[in-house]
TrEMBL record:
Belongs to the GMC oxidoreductase family. PROSITE patterns: GMC_OXRED_1, GMC_OXRED_2. Keywords: FAD, Flavoprotein, Signal. It comes from Cuscuta campestris. This is Glucose-methanol-choline oxidoreductase N-terminal domain-containing protein. It comes from the Eukaryota. InterPro entries: FAD/NAD-bd_sf (IPR036188), GMC_Oxidoreductase-Related (IPR051871), GMC_OxRdtase_N (IPR000172), GMC_OxRtase_C (IPR007867).
Length: 1108
């Protein structure tokens, strides 16, 4: 008993040793055995069961999952997220978006036609490697709408959450004030800490751990079987290859062509089995873009060529960002290069405005032309206005009074925001006379893009590309809205979904005693199940079971609603676990896992006062694990791949939020290749450290973790270009999708819950206490890449810096669909590699390249609008007009709130979910960089303090959920390294604008609340902050006005930003079917680009769950 619960006082030094080991481990790639630079791939890169294009939020989860039972390559156009501090740590969050020095930066910046700056992840892990880290599940309604199995969705969410999510233990001052301000503003009930997407105010979850380290979808590849998976990073897919049928049968995907970083071409092929598929998970932009580049899209084009209020504070800034704020009139302090204050955002959920995407050229490296038509539908504008009204209430609340400047008004902050060039949209006015105008002028993106490959248009309800065989789209491009507060959780969950659950649920039954294949698989699964339980449990159940389903049910019955029995078993295991020949790291991690399981059954371990040393030892090991990659055995630079890089059961393209989860899961029973275009997140403090978070957005190098670009709407965006995807570069919010969202998608709630739990065991942390601004995010950043620790390293291969250029297809000679059989990718040196699927019926390529990358790669591979593909000289495999259509992004608006006192660094753990469709979120004490401070000073925040380069204050924002405005994506060229042209049409639907206004009104109430009185400056009005925000060049949209005191609508439109919750582009029933298979193509699936909305408060939880 003493050893199990208590650690003796004689080992203090070892405790420190363990902590050091863990923090270094969080920064390095944990799967060197299968992660390879695409330059190492052979020209003929092998045959595989599945090829996953896009190592993003869904692709990583999907590839990991498929590798459990199939040979899979994952092709990621970016590099690895590990070793890049702009990705791996919270402190580098902003820096990556300012990284324009490198064409390979992790966030690829581009401008939508709406004038909103956008970015696409260009790194393994996708969006989860570059986003703010919010993790939120989709709602139950969203799951039902999607037609997902709620049970399966729940399982997948849990699968993701075991790796990636962390819950803040305490709320920091800024977040605590915002929480109280939201409640005071009427955003009720208070739901406490939860993954779930619930109306009211909640404490969400993050993919940043308590040490500020990010855990992106790339971490999900730890689940992968490293004997069955290969990840090629810097593998830019140029084209999905199709067999052109005769006798009026569908084209069939059979492979992909990709180029490495040296420009060398590679081809990977599917095995010839009926179930082998290419799965396009290149994201909302990448998936429709690649479909069009591959010849699936509008014929003429190919030929021619709800609101969420969120908040952050104390954000680390780079000098460029500070300069912009200063020029806009922000009199804000930046101690330690951090914002002395915070941000409140209103995000419009369930947007009605829709846009479109077109190819700019045939280069998959280029972003397509995207138009989102923000606030085109008046319902979106109304939602935005309501969200801004909530932000006003929060700002003016008593709870916020201790933080805000008494002389600062809400209107002045609107004017400040309008003065900041946050987008490239024309400003309609300089002063905030209208919240409607504020929403339209200042719209930005939360990177929650969706659409472009929508269900029933481009894909069917199995996410198969309609009209093509062996090709699916599984990412946000298939979503019609952004599920949950943030869609990354749902995208990762979707990546996880595709496995052999039928043997467990009993849905797959034997055809008879001669059904040898069923008997072999069932026996295999029984062996897997029994390997997870101890001898005592085995003795209790094995004699009464005859199948895997019976065995599973017996275990369930044994422990269901019986926490005491489970606790006794776990305590016995904890007390009797000895180190033996295992390493200290493995031993302590085993004890930590058991302790976590005991906590789950309400029997937490406690450590007496006389045993500090071993506790410290464990802490040190864990924090070093957060910095170094835990899977060196299978993660390889793509330059190490041979020209013909092998044959796999599944190839997962994109080591992002879903791709890591998927690859890790698949590796349990199949040979899987995971290809990530970016690098590893470990050893990169901008990725792994919370304090370096802002650096990611200022890192403009070609290999930066966040690849910046601007939407055609004028909104500055970024795409993750790092293992872990968006979970490696975001703010780290972790929130499950709501039950409604799970229901909307048609997912199995039980499976969703299991998948969430799987993710959460690896990547989520609950804050220990509420700090003055908000909940503390656990210091370490855990990203989707951490989920690869789940992977079977004997079955998975991860190639990072593997840019997939093309999915390869076999065209059938006697009818039928084209079949994906391989991919071509390039490594960092430009060498080409080809990988192929094994020729089994279930082998597939899974495209998890994100909402931008997945449709982009589909187009580059010949699946997209015919005319658009032809205009770029792309051989059309499938004329699929809906690839790249239905692109959507949840518009974000908010204010920077200077504080009269220092604020702690905290990300958005407190979330207000309004009934009007807004999510109110906040950050405080943001670590700054000199450029960011300079921008704030120039914008008019001269009086703002930045002690220790941190923002003395916070940011409060509202995000519009369930947007109605939709846009589109087009190829810019044929270079998969380049961002396509994306248009989101922010606020094109007036309903989105209305939601934004309501969200800003909530922010005003919070700002003016009593809870905030101790933080705000008494002389600062809400209106003055609006004007200050308008002076900051957050986007490239034309300002409609300079002052916004009379119009929140103008403020929303002029100052719109992104939360990077892009979705759509490969939507279900349009591009993919309900199984996320690309309609009209065989052996190809696509990840989260099929989302029609952004699930949960933040989608990364759902994206990782989806991958699981």
């Amino acid at each position: 008993m003493a050893f199990g619960r208590c650690f003796p006082f004689v080992a203090p030094s070892i405790g420190i040793f363990v902590l050091v080991i863990v923090s270094s481990l969080a920064e390095k790639a944990p799967y060197n055995s299968f992660a390879k630079d695409a330059t190492s791939a052979s020209t003929s890169a092998g045959h595989y069961d599945y090829i996953v294009i896009g190592g993003g939020t869904a692709g990583c989860a999907l590839a990991a999952t498929l590798s459990a039972s199939a040979k899979v390559p994952l092709l990621e156009r970016g590099g690895m997220p590990y070793g890049n501090p702009n990705i791996t740590h919270q402190s580098g969050l902003v820096s990556r978006f300012y990284d324009t020095s490198s064409p390979d930066s992790a966030a690829q910046l581009f401008l939508s036609k709406d004038g909103v700056w956008l970015s696409r992840a260009r790194v393994l892990g996708g969006g989860s490697a570059i986003n703010l880290g919010f993790y939120s599940r989709a709602s139950g309604g969203e799951v039902v709408e999607a037609g997902w199995d709620p049970h399966l969705v729940n399982q997948s969410y849990m699968w993701v959450e075991r790796k990636l999510t962390f819950r803040p233990k305490t709320l920091l001052q800024w977040q605590a004030a915002v929480k109280d301000g939201l409640v005071e503003a009427g955003v009720v009930p208070y739901n406490g800490g939860t993954y779930e997407h619930l109306v009211g105010t909640k404490i969400g979850n993050s993919i940043f751990d308590e040490n500020g380290y990010r855990h992106s979808a790339a971490d999900l590849l730890e689940y992968a079987d490293d004997t069955k998976i290969t990840l090629y990073y810097h593998a830019l897919v140029h084209k999905i290859l199709f067999k052109t049928p005769s006798l009026e049968r569908k084209p069939r995907a059979y492979g992909v062509f990709f180029k490495d970083s040296k420009g060398n071409g590679h081809t990977a092929f599917l095995n010839g089995g009926p179930d082998n598929e290419i799965i396009l998970s290149a994201g909302v932009f990448g998936s429709p873009q690649l479909l069009m580049l591959s010849g699936v899209g509008p014929s003429d084009h190919l030929k021619a060529h709800g609101n969420y209020i969120e908040t952050v504070s104390g954000l680390s800034l780079v000098p460029e960002a500070i300069k912009v704020l200063m020029q806009a009139g922000v009199n804000m302090s930046f101690p330690d290069m951090k914002t002395q204050g915070g941000f409140l955002f209103s995000k419009v959920n369930k947007t009605f405005s829709q846009g479109h995407m077109e190819l700019r050229n045939k280069d998959p490296n280029e972003n397509p032309m995207v138009t989102f038509n923000y606030f085109q539908d008046s319902r979106d504008l109304k939602t935005c206005v309501r969200g801004m009204e909530v932000i006003r209430k929060v700002f003016e609340s008593e709870s916020f009074s201790s933080l805000r400047n008494p002389s600062t008004t809400f209107e002045s902050l609107l004017d400040l925001v309008s003065a900041i060039p946050i987008n490239e949209r024309p400003k309609h006015r300089l002063k905030t006379a209208s919240l409607e105008q504020f929403c339209m002028d200042n719209v930005i993106t939360l990177l929650l893009f969706h659409g472009g490959c929508r269900v029933d248009s481009v894909v069917d309800h199995d996410y198969k590309v309609i009209g093509i065989d062996a090709l699916r789209v599984i990412d946000g491009s298939t979503f019609s809205s952004s599920p949950g507060t943030n869609l990354q959780a749902t995208v990762m969950m979707l990546g996880r979904r595709f496995n052999l659950e039928g043997f467990i649920t009993g849905e797959k039954t034997s055809a008879g005693k001669d059904d040898v294949e069923w008997l072999q698989l069932d026996a295999l699964i029984q062996g897997w199940i029994l390997s997870t339980v101890n001898d005592e449990v085995s003795d209790l159940i094995i004699s009464s079971t005859t199948s895997a389903a019976d065995l599973w049910k017996a275990i369930h019955n044994l422990f269901h609603d019986n926490k005491a029995a489970r606790a006794m078993q776990l305590e016995h295991q904890f007390y009797n676990t000895i180190k033996g020949t295992s390493t200290i790291q493995t031993y302590c991690q085993t004890l930590q896992n058991i302790a976590d399981w005991l906590d789950d059954v309400d029997a937490p371990l406690w450590f007496p006062f006389f045993a500090p040393s071993l506790g410290i030892l464990l802490l040190i090991i864990v924090s070093s694990l957060a910095e170094k990659a835990p899977y060196n055995s299978f993660a390889k630079d793509a330059t190490l791949a041979s020209a013909s890089a092998g044959h796999y059961d599944y190839i997962v393209i994109g080591g992002g939020t879903a791709g890591c989860a998927l690859a890790a899961t698949l590796s349990g029973s199949a040979k899987v290749l995971l290809l990530e275009r970016g690098g590893m997140p470990y050893d990169n403090p901008s990725v792994t450290r919370q304090s370096d978070f802002l650096n990611i957005f200022f890192d403009t190098s070609p290999g930066s973790a966040a690849q910046p670009f601007v939407s055609t709407d004028g909104v500055r965006l970024t795409r993750a270009r790092i293992l872990g995807g968006g979970s490696a570069i975001n703010v780290g919010f972790y929130s499950r999708a709501s039950k409604e969202e799970v229901s909307d998608e048609g997912w199995d709630p039980h499976l969703v819950n299991q998948s969430y739990a799987w993710v959460e065991r690896k990547v989520t942390f609950r804050p220990k206490r509420l700090l003055r601004w908000q909940t503390a995010v656990r210091d370490g950043l855990h990203i989707a890449a951490d989920l690869l620790e789940y992977a079977d390293d004997s079955k998975i291969t991860l190639y990072f810096q593997a840019v997939v250029h093309q999915i390869l297809f076999k065209r059938p000679s006697s009818g039928g669909n084209p079949t994906a059989y391989g991919i071509f990718f390039k490594d960092l040196k430009g060498n080409g590699h080809m990988v192929f699927l094994n020729e089994g019926p279930n082998n597939e390529i899974i495209l998890s390249a994100g909402a931008i990358g997945s449709p982009q790669l589909l187009m580059l591979s010949g699946i997209g609008p015919f005319d658009h593909l032809k205009a770029h000289g792309i051989d059309v495999i499938l004329d699929q007009q809906m690839v790249g259509q239905g692109m959507a992004d949840n518009p974000l608006n908010g204010i920077i709130i200077p504080s009269i006192r220092p604020t702690e660094t905290s990300f958005s753990d407190v979330v207000g979910i309004t009934r009007s469709g807004n999510y109110i979120e906040t950050l405080s004490g943001l670590p700054m960089v000199p450029k960011a401070i300079e921008i704030l000073r120039q914008a008019g925040f001269e009086d703002m303090s930045f002690p220790d380069m941190k923002l003395q204050g916070g940011i409060m924002s509202e995000k519009v959920n369930k947007i109605f405005s939709q846009g589109h994506m087009e190829l810019k060229n044929r270079d998969p390294n380049d961002n396509p042209m994306v248009t989101f049409n922010y606020f094109q639907d007036s309903r989105d604008l209305q939601t934004c206004v309501r969200g800003m009104e909530v922010i005003k109430k919070v700002f003016e609340s009593e809870s905030f009185a101790s933080l705000r400056n008494p002389s600062t009005s809400f209106e003055s902050l609006l004007d200050l925000m308008s002076a900051i060049p957050f986007n490239m949209r034309q300002k409609n006005r300079l002052k916004y005191c009379a119009s929140l609508e103008d403020f929303c439109v002029d100052n719109v930003l992104t939360m990077w919750h892009f979705h759509g582009g490969c939507r279900v029933d349009s591009v993919v079917d309900r199984d996320y298979k690309v309609i009209g193509v065989d052996a190809l699936r696509v990840d989260g680009s099929m989302f029609s909305s952004s699930p949960g408060t933040n989608p990364q939880a759902t994206v990782m769950m989806f991958g699981r």
